[in-house]
Amino acid sequence: MSTYTRTIIRLVFVLATCMLLPVSLFAQIRKPLSLQQRIQYIIDTSKAKVGVGILGLDFKDSLVVNNGTHYPMQSVFKFPLAIYILHQVDKGKLSLSQNIHIRKEELDTATWSPLVTDFPKQDIDITLTELLKYTISKSDNNGCDILFRLAGGPAPVNSYIHSLGVMQIAIKANEATMKTGWAVQYTNWCQPGAMLQLLKLFYNRKVLSRSSNDVLVKLMIESSNSENRLKGSLPTHTIVAHKTGTSNTNKKGITAATNDVGIVTLPNGHHYAIVVYVSDYTGGVVRGEHIIAAISKVVYDHYARMTQPAVR
Hints:
Number of strands: 10
CATH superfamily: DD-peptidase/beta-lactamase superfamily
Oligomer: single chain
CATH architecture: 3-Layer(aba) Sandwich
Radius of gyration: 24 Å
CATH class: Alpha Beta
């Protein structure tokens, strides 16, 4: 038998064998999609501007997608604001137990404000700890602007965050100012990579004392902000310390921002920071939340397969 004939016989045998293999086996043989490919598929089908950042905090891995855009933060900016306020506490310029008197005339009743709901038509006396809880855990807009007043306005907060080396972020307007025009919200922007930097500094306790750091972590974990975003499709008891941000939808049906940023704890005790900004899209907040939840799920599933013990 010639070499040519033997080659043909082998080829026929291989082809015949392949025809008998189940389709599922071919699916296993096919190279699986990478994490970036899975995220990119969600982005490509979202019809929105989507920026994503992922960073292993006690393991080495990172990914940033569409980092070049200035995404409007909306209430995500309450996270760096809280860091600044707690930094002032650490310096002794503020105290968590100090009383803050809020006159009822100072409260905007036409904005998102659990303070207004809980203390209707009355002056309020509240500690700084409680005010931080309203601002971070409940995303209260009045609480936010009172904290900005204590900070001396957005400028000192912006300068402080830049002093930490986090440059691709801008904090220019408080909640009241953002209400003055649709375009104003875009002056408070952040790139995904910059927010990852800030989350890493926060996680590694590089900016706050241990006690102040623990206060903010607790407020972010206990957040009553929407659980349909980073937490939306994760296992029920997953610990997520996060801060959301949400814009209105204008008359053209455009939603400027549906965001969520935070730190996720994996089953093995590892942690990763994740940032998802969804901007300038149609379909309303619910659609933006679905995009965030889908991205969060593929990221969690990817890292949940890791088995190394956490190092802290």
